[in-house]
Amino acid sequence: MALLLPAVFGFHVNNTMSMNPHRVTTSFTTRRYWWSTAAAAAAARVQQPKRPAGPAFHSAAAASAAAANFNFNPSTSAPLRTTIVHQAALPTTFTPSLHRNLHKPAKMSSSTAALIEKAKFLAANRAVAEHLSPTYRHIGIGSGSTVIHVVDAIAQLGPAITAPMTFYPTGDQSRDLIKAAGFRLGYISDLPPTQPLDICFDGADEVDPALNLIKGGGACLLQEKLVAAASRKFVCVADSRKISLNLGTAWKKGIPIEVFPMAVPRVLDELERLGCLSVQVRSGLPGKAGACVTDNGLRIVDAVFKPLLTELVPGMEDGEEGVWTVDGLARRLIEIPGVAEHGLFYGKSGLEVESGGAQKPVAAYFGMEDGSVMVQTLEKGLVQA
Known about the structure:
385 residues; eight-stranded mixed β-sheet
């Protein structure tokens, strides 16, 4: 019944327009070539013995001791991880948090789920260790399963470091995580417009070589973008499944778009005109009957487009035959009346602007299944951390 409702009420559209395969092939630019090369080299390196993921050690002895003590234990349970990165120390154990019931992952085998959680744990610890300065006072906390590990990592730094900090959520889930950790809770609306956040940690549904993101799988995209844009720098934390050559290839559920309820039918019609392959209003099932309602009281529309490019082939126009660049589609979507925000994070990063407003991360940390961590930046591409 749930699958029939969108079609019955006009909330599901299929566009059978086919993509020109030649143009998709020729759109693999030099930028994509170095990304493929970097990804292949990274895949080759991760087959070799790895040093433990974590910040730089002050001595070889410290590194050896940490490697010897590393123990991943997915069977135990504790409210917070028992050992987390703190300056030069590495995490030695991973224990699933009781907070995990706030975000229910898709069904998978227990062994696969444990590997993914371990990957997120390692990436979160590395990101916090390398980017959270004790001098920071305003910290943005995003939404999703990976951010659970970020909050745990910050909590283990201790009240001497975290007590002077204020933490700003992107939704109800991150608000609950902040409160459960005993952090001071703040709201972005209470900050003066001239006061930026020092840093924001958040996850992503997909990341391309230019650090463009798709976000919004958890329906918090509007507040996530507000917090990211208010931050001096945004650090993304994810697992290896989120790495992609083009947005829309690894994440196949479509670009999340937050829409005012009364505008939904017209927005669906306009998305079809833009070459959308399929679009539907997100269901609230299994948690609730009817449509998904965001923390802002709006609806989520998931729109599937052909894989998004970072650069157009010479002589090709944005949107031609339904093929868009990330920037072109992002600008076009926000122009549709009734659209509050969309899940494409694009443009510039905090390293490229001085006055705020950047949406892209300065770095993305990926936990790999073999226990290593890779980091992606614009300067170095995707490399082992």
